[in-house]
Amino acid sequence: MEVVEVIIGGILPCVAVAVFLAAMAYRIYVWQKLPQPPLTLFPAPPTAGRHTVTTIKEAAFFWGLF
User: What's the rounded Cα separation, in Å, for the pair 13 and 17?
Assistant: First the structure.
């Protein structure tokens, strides 16, 4: 029974967190490659680095909802 407890209580949560973080990083990468709409309510970021930071902030804090 200890082996099952180690797998369910120790290994499985770590795998789940790793899969979640990898999938979120992939989604941010895909979102970054999407073209920006021509009309925006806010000024578009001037550089690719600022665009990446803005995309990560949007994914983490849901700025578009406020």
Answer: 6
* Crossing angle (nearest 10°) for helices 48-61 and 12-33: 130
Q: Which distant-in-sequence residues (6+ apart) come within 8 Å of 54 by Cβ?
A: 45
Q: How far apart are CA 25 and CA 46, in angstroms?
A: 22
> Are 63 and 57 within 8 A, CB to CB?
yes
What's this model's pTM, rounded to 2 decimal places? 0.53
Query: What is the band of 65 on the pLDDT scale with cuts at 50, 70, 90?
Result: confident
Question: What sign does the CA torsion over 61, 53, 27, 44 have?
Answer: positive
4, 15, 50, 54 from 47: Cα distances, Å: 50, 35, 5, 11
